[in-house]
Amino acid sequence: MNTPDPVLLRRAFGAFPTGVTVVTTRDGTGRPLGFTANSFASVSLDPPMLLVCPARTLSSFDAFAGCDRFAVNVLAEGQQDVSNVFATHRGERFAAVSWREDASGRPLIDGTAANFGCRTERVVDAGDHVILLGRVETFECSGSRGLGYASGHYFSLGLEREAAAAPRQGLKAVAGAIVEYGDGVLLESTADGYRPPQVALSGRARVRAALAEHLDAIGVDADIGKAYSIFDDAKTGTHYSYFIASAASSAAGAAGEFVPVDSLSQLRFVSAAHAEMMKRFALESRQRCFGLYVGDEQGGDVHQFN
Ligand SMILES: Cc1cc2nc3c(=O)[nH]c(=O)nc-3n(C[C@H](O)[C@H](O)[C@H](O)COP(=O)(O)O)c2cc1C
Hints:
By secondary structure, the protein is of the alpha+beta class. The chain contains six helices and 21 strands.
């Protein structure tokens, strides 16, 4: 095989979904060092061993390739900011997170899904990386779900599951789509105000499939993407799951029209929760960096994945 195009190869490797870890050690002066790594793999149960691959380009490469001890911290859902600190931050990374050290002085990050304290077993040359093989001396597992990473984006199985889960008893379930085309989003006009196209779900219907069928039925050709907002509205007794979708054409379907994102703030929406959701969408679409809101009409959390 000729030398492959590195961009295409990176993309192909990136299709393999992984977790995210932060690998830590101390340099000769005792300074804590760490980098984000998804090249982690469990290797052996008996004896307990794992591996991770530091790149030769790391500023801390010599310290990791020559260390006696290191730790692998498996990040939990919601710790994408910690991942970003240990992937890009140029200053003192450990000043930006909460951490402690284990009995052997290995830096451990707080709030993770698991951590492994390792003694270096072997360091194997492997092209532009090395394989750091560690013998596990200590480990902890918190029970939190691990943060996911695939094709350059973080994902969170727990939140995706919540999006697909049946609503609390007594609530109606409604799925909707914020359908984008160019600079506009598709909105339906109702007597109570504007809202994105939506459909009432029956029972434990597969949410995405039901929404796709609905969009098809109203004449909108769109691909449904990530979950964007999941909230309960006590006033209307409804559990909403909204997804971002991209339309294949400007055909707005039966009841809708594409409205420029810039003018969303001037519209009256069916509820305060819908107005808040569309306000956040207008802001986030400028950066193309969309979070996922989980909560109710009064409050909740936005989880950022990009
Ligand atoms: C999700 C993710 C996974 C990464 N995996 C690895 C990895 O396995 N090995 C590696 O050397 N760098 C990996 N990186 C990149 C390093 O974290 C980054 O190059 C490093 O923190 C730069 O540190 P420096 O500025 O000290 O050189 C990854 C980055 C991200 C965001």
